[in-house]
Amino acid sequence: MKFINLHTHKFTNQDSVLELVNQYPQEFDAGIPFYSIGIHPWYINEQKLEADLQIIESKLQENNCLALGECGLDKRIEVPLELQQMVFEKQLLLAQNYNKPVLIHCVAAFQELVAAKKKLKITVPMLLHGFSKNKQVAKELINNGFYISFGKYLLQNPEMRTVFEDVPSDRFFLETDTVEESIQKVYALAAAYKNIEIEELQKIVNNNFNQVFNF
Q1: Which of 3, 27, 179, 212 matches a 20 to 30 Å C-alpha distance to 10?
Q2: β-pairing, 126-128 with 172-174?
Q3: Residues 6 or more apart from 67 whose CB is under 8 A from it?
Q4: Does pLDDT of 215 surpass 90?
């Protein structure tokens, strides 16, 4: 049973870990076994937008591209929200068209996120990575069909324990994102919080992964 790392920026090439490595259109590495690819709101470049979208569309047709992303909305950056929304919506429609899950970066824009899903009638799984908010936000996202992935903030903020404990077993994933700690360390803490063995946690996450990614 593998450890599944839903979202990482660093390929570690361990036999015991299945890593979904984040890729950017202009910096694509064909040597990575499984990846997601998307335009992060921080890195929107209007001059390269159409070229980026074409690269993403071509990669979405490959079997080892498991998801679109990370993409999303961030109200704490200078990129205008309207531009972010336009780029996000274009990517959501590509994911829907090619039947790929979406990995989402969202900062202070959860209402807009839910609204975009409803507006475009997105039915592919949408997974919010790097969750750091409270139970109320988690509950609203789950009620609107989202999955939630935990990693950095689970390790760094003890207050995330009660949020994580409340998330149903069939709606969460684990990740490392950009932290130095291993995915095994994330699993160890998550298993302790859920009061189960690591092997049981691996089964849960593997089941969720198979369900969402038809893996």
Answers
A1: 212
A2: unpaired
A3: 20, 36, 95, 100, 101, 102, 103, 127, 213
A4: no
Helix axis angle, 183-194 to 198-213, nearest 10°: 110
Tokens found for residue 189: 């803490």
Q: Vertex 124, ends 128 and 171: CA angle to 5°? A: 45
* DSSP H or E run through 159: none
Q: If phi over 0 gives left and psi between -120 and 50 gives alpha, with beta otherwise, what is residue 13?
A: left
Site of tokens 């959860």: 110
d(CA 179, CA 182): 8
* Helix spans in the chain (H): 49-60, 81-98, 110-119, 135-143, 152-156, 160-166, 183-194, 198-213
Tell me what the pLDDT averaged over the chain comes to: 97
**How far, in Å, are 117, 138, 152, 160 from residue 157 at the CA level?**
29, 16, 8, 6
pLDDT one-digit tens code per residue, 83-123: 999 999 999 999 999 999 999 999 999 999 999 999 999 99
Average pLDDT on 32-58 reads 98
Residue 184, SS3? helix
pLDDT digits (tens, 9 = 90+) for 50-74: 999 999 999 999 999 999 999 999 9
pLDDT for 89? 98
C-alpha to C-alpha distance for 57 and 171, rounded to whole angstroms:
27
Tokens of 45: 């470049």
